[in-house]
Design a protein that fits this description.
about 725 residues, alpha/beta, GIY-YIG endonuclease, Rossmann fold, 5 domains, seven-stranded parallel beta sheet, six-stranded parallel beta sheet, 30 strands
Length: about 725
């Protein structure tokens, strides 16, 4: 018997399987998808690899033997093995990187030195019960007799109930033994309870239509306004699947959403729920993954990578807030979790739901053309009204001296505080201020590794780069001319300070990447705000979607222009989506609610459509522009970034790639660039970009594969190929 073993090797072009003999002793144990140790290279160094095929070929003396099986507890099943080949072809990544991204860090191909297993220890009888009874008279200690007596009547007792001396004495006599029982770190089995929620007619129709598709592949777009009860639709569908012993994967874009949603899922489904996201410890990820793999968990809730969960009898995949950029991975392999979900849907013949109040325009177009089955939830549950949206012109407010909080927003906050209602404020910029500059010579502090100014964080008096992590302490005076320094622009820390001054006595909580960096802080802040320990929550985009607080009656957007001014063809779509989602946090408990959006561009079409609540008109407007400019969904996009530590080399290779590709592509295919890519230098790496737009270019993947091979092991120039990029 022989096995094909895929290894991770520093030479990326060696992305292929190598043949090894399987020792006779391991032939019955070895399975496709197992992690094994194999000798590799002239020195026969032992490295890990995945078995991706097993053949009945006879022993070949010219081949090396598999040394050992690294982990019998884990097997990449056939579906995930095949999914790796799908990813390799679609995203032009290496096969090994596809498999690596499917696994939590504690189970990746690297050699694991930590033991992530966790046990409860129990005391059990080592001898039979009749013999144990005869030992009782010989035992001197009262505790020893008590323990043995209890074990005669019970199967096991937790080790911690007795002292070490009592246990050691009985172990030495050979009367008892210690039994280890593996345990999961996250266990919520006592929470399960029945649901008594009554669906409205729209929700009932959605559940009925989607459940009729159980057992076959169909993609649904569930387009429901904020607060329309999409989550309850998901839960009802999952309940139906659990009754026929089938499972579900539920993806959400943000860890903040995971915390609140997971508690709801635990309460509804108990310990058949597993959670996968980046805030878990390595040990917790290990537990949750094995819990899923063993079939102990039938419902998986998590962020992007949870789409790879090896759930048994998968019956549905649900992607909530499908419009979010978070479902697209920005580093290799640059997969989109929605693509993976659709592929798994086809493979398993199951429905896939894409849910959102503001679906991506490509998704909405497919819904309108019946490529996806379109289902609408047009109103909030209990017929609660949507909040009124009001646009405030900040050009007039600045003249009054109101640079951060307009008169209207201040008045509305005062009203809500008087009525003991809650307020949420969005400012999509963390830190204290955008930049620090000199009032005399204009000197600004820039990151030494990236072409970007440093952001001032007042809490620790540091200037930080949010791209590479570089930081330095803010000086008191300008290092160039010794004049005073000014902090310009507003970040969440500065907003927190200003709000505290204006609304004395208000209890304020800030939610951004800085305040939630410690483990468990997302859950803690959400729980405390829900319990009304705070009056005002302010934060970045992480508070804009999915959170459900019944006492929030006012949402304020401090500056709607940040996302509008980004030079990207999706900026209008993203702005509408973010502001609509943020607005949806208000009035979810039926309170009279309002949303105040502050802007310096009050005549912007997107903002006007938002004020009118017209998603479809904004969609039509943006699509007309995309059609003229040949952007998705009318054309496909591929982004290429050429990266090097040397400016000249990056520029030269980018032009070389353009000249290589241009003559080979279809005559209707458009190549833009090379140009500098967004932030031109990050972590001392210079970046040039090419963008390919195409419709029916059948040869494009082959051309890019040729280019990729030229650079895959190049140490001086790195090529990033991004299929269907979200950002260009």
């Amino acid at each position: 018997m022989q096995a094909k073993v895929l290894i991770e090797y520093k030479v990326k072009s060696l992305d292929k399987a190598f043949s090894y003999n399987v020792k006779e002793l391991e032939q019955n144990d070895l399975l496709v998808g197992m992690k094994v140790k194999v000798p590799f290279g002239n020195g026969n160094k032992l490295i890990n690899g995945f078995v991706i095929d097993i053949t009945n070929d006879e022993y070949d003396p010219s081949l090396k033997n598999i040394d050992s099986i690294s982990d019998k507890n884990l097997v990449l099943n056939k579906e995930l093995i095949d999914l790796g080949f799908f990813m390799k072809e679609k995203y032009l990544c290496t096969l090994i990187s596809a498999y690596q991204t499917m696994l939590p860090s504690s189970l990746k191909i690297k050699t694991i030195t930590s033991n992530y297993q966790k046990y409860d220890e129990y005391l059990v009888l080592k001898i039979n019960k009749e013999l144990a009874k005869t030992f009782l008279n010989d035992l001197k200690g009262a505790k020893q007799k008590e323990l043995v007596n209890r074990l005669i009547n019970f199967e096991a007792i937790k080790k911690g109930e007795y002292s070490k001396s009592t246990i050691d004495s009985l172990l030495e006599k050979g009367v008892i033994d210690i039994k280890k029982v593996e345990k999961y770190r996250i266990n919520k089995s006592n929470l399960k309870k029945e649901s008594n929620i009554v669906l409205n007619s729209d929700q009932e129709n959605a559940v009925k239509r989607i459940s009729s598709s159980f057992g076959k592949y169909e993609t649904f777009l569930l387009h429901g306004v904020t607060g329309s009860g999409k989550t309850e639709v998901y839960m009802q569908l999952i309940e139906k699947l659990l009754k026929i012993d089938e499972g579900a994967i539920m993806l959400v874009p943000e860890i903040t959403l995971t915390a609140q949603l997971v508690n709801s899922f635990y309460e509804r489904f108990g310990d058949v729920v597993a959670v996968l996201h980046s805030s878990l410890s390595d040990g917790e990820k290990y537990d949750e993954y094995l819990k899923i793999y063993r079939g102990d968990a039938k419902v998986v809730v998590g962020t992007r990578s949870a789409v790879f969960a090896p759930i048994k009898n998968l019956g549905i995949i649900i992607i909530d807030e499908e419009h979010s950029d978070s479902f697209k991975q920005e580093n290799n392999p640059r997969y989109n979790a929605i693509d993976i979900a659709l592929e798994r849907g086809k493979t398993n013949n199951i429905p896939v739901i894409l849910g959102s109040a503001t679906p991506r325009y490509e998704t909405f177009a497919r819904g309108l053309k019946n490529v996806y089955t379109y289902i609408s939830l047009p109103k909030r549950i209990n017929d609660y009204p949507l909040p009124k949206i009001e646009i405030v012109d900040m050009t007039k407010e600045v003249k009054k001296g109101n640079r951060i909080i307009s008169t209207k927003l201040k008045e509305e906050i005062d009203k809500r505080l008087e009525k003991n209602e809650q307020v949420m404020l969005l400012l999509n910029r963390r830190g204290f201020s955008t930049l620090v500059s000199c009032s005399s010579c204009g000197h600004t502090f820039k990151c030494p590794n990236c072409d970007i100014t440093l952001t001032y964080h007042k809490t620790n008096n540091t200037l930080r780069c949010h791209y590479c992590g570089h930081y330095e302490f803010k000086p008191n005076i300008c290092p160039e001319c010794r004049s005073d320094l000014n902090a310009l622009g507003t970040g969440t820390q500065k907003l927190e300070e200003e709000i505290g001054k204006i609304f004395e006595g208000a209890r304020i909580v800030r939610m951004d990447a800085d305040s939630t960096s410690r483990k468990g802080m997302h859950e803690k802040l959400i729980k405390e705000f829900k319990e009304k320990k705070y009056d005002i929550m302010l934060g970045t985009q992480m508070i804009s979607k999915g959170l459900d607080f019944k006492d929030v009656s006012l949402v304020g957007v401090i500056n709607a222009d940040n996302s509008l001014n980004i030079p990207d063809f999706r900026s209008g779509e993203r702005t509408y989506s973010m502001l609509e989602q943020t607005s949806g946090r208000a009035g979810r408990g039926g309170l009279d609610s309002i949303v105040i959006i502050q802007t310096f561009n009050k005549d912007n079409f997107t903002l006007k459509m938002l004020e009118k609540g017209s998603f479809t008109k904004n969609y039509a407007y943006e699509m007309s522009i995309r059609k003229k400019l040949k952007y998705p969904p009318y054309y496909y996009l591929i982004g290429l970034k050429v990266c090097s530590k040397e400016y000249e080399q990056a520029s030269k290779e980018a032009n070389k790639i353009y000249n290589f590709i241009k003559p080979k592509v279809d005559k209707e295919t458009i190549i833009l660039g090379p140009t500098t890519a967004g932030i031109f230098r990050i972590k001392n790496i210079y970046r040039f970009q090419l963008v390919i737009k195409y419709r029916f270019d059948k040869n494009i993947k082959n051309i890019l594969n040729e280019v990729n091979k030229l650079y895959i092991d190049n140490k001086d120039v790195y090529l990033e190929i991004d299929i269907d990029p979200y950002m260009i």
